[in-house]
Amino acid sequence: MLKEAVSYSITEGESVRIVQITDPHLFADPEAQLLGVNTGKSLAAVLNTIRAVDYPAHLMLATGDLSQDYSAESYQQFVKAVTPVDLPCHYLPGNHDDPRIMYLHMQGEQIFGQQRILAGNWQILMLDSTVRGKPGGNMADSQFELIDKAIAAHPHLHTLLVMHHNPIVVNCTWLDQHCMDNGAEFLVRVAQYPQVKGLLWGHVHQCIDTYHKGPHGNLQLMATPSTCIQFKPLSPYFALDSIQPGYRLLELKADGSINTKVYRVPGNHFSPDNNSSGY
Predict the structure, then answer these.
(1) CB of 14 within 8 A of CB of 56?
(2) Is 65 one of the annotated binding-site residues?
(3) Is 176 annotated as a binding residue?
(4) 3-state secondary structure of 100
(5) How far apart are CA 151 and CA 160, in angstroms?
(6) Is 164 annotated as a binding residue?
């Protein structure tokens, strides 16, 4: 039985426009820092940039690691921060989140934890790739079942799959230890569906735009920078990048294609401390 979906009325033929933010790593203490970056202030800077751009989005996706310390206050601060953006915000858990505390305190008129979103010609599935107590991920049978049933229920809709963990390795040796451990199987299985057009995730704190060649054409694969610290790409060891926090804009077109671009906070206000510890 499929659980309730959130539905949006989109004009026939209109694109579904999305803002994605990910990995804010908030603390109960608004002045707390992660590796030298105040995560509350960096999230605020990202959200201010989004508002300044004035992209006519229909909704926002928050793809996990909203908290760093599992506190109720960190989730309450997230809700407070995104409310002025005035967009419906759909969230899923990351490996730094406590799903129970998250569910209890991610509350607001425009805050949604449902896994299915119906909008125009698209269906968006918010998948849970987390494994309790582990930094790495796994796509459980229950999530495959959700995908199967959701597509069977709406076979005419294009589908975007959203998760926290990366299903592909990103060629950072230390980080690839914490990817989705059945990512290769996941890609093969979801690529069998012509409805699935793209996969979107966080976790890796860097921008990735690539493709997976499947039996029905290229499957678009997208990873998005964190709203706080960034991991240095292609590094065999843990290393931070000095590039600024960012977010992703997506345009899901009625024909099933996806236009997307990553944007970053201007300036150089959020420089991590490579000598810090605590991630």
Answers:
(1) no
(2) yes
(3) no
(4) helix
(5) 11
(6) yes
For residue 66 the two structure tokens come to 């909203």
Looking at residues 196-218, what average pLDDT do you find? 96
Flag whether 25 is marked binding.
yes
Q: Do 57 and 19 touch, CB atoms closer than 8 A?
A: yes
| CB 119, CB 8: distance < 8 Å | yes
178 is in an annotated binding site: no
Instruction: Determine the residue type at 29.
Output: D
- Residues 239-274: pLDDT tens digits? 999 999 999 999 999 999 999 999 999 999 898 877
Non-local CB neighbours of 130 within 8 Å, separated by 6+ positions: 64, 93, 94, 95, 97, 99, 137, 164, 165
Asked whether residue 205 is marked as a ligand-binding residue, the answer is yes
The 3 state secondary structure assigned to 28-67 is CCCCCEECCEEHHHHHHHHHHHHHHHCCCCCEEEEECCCE
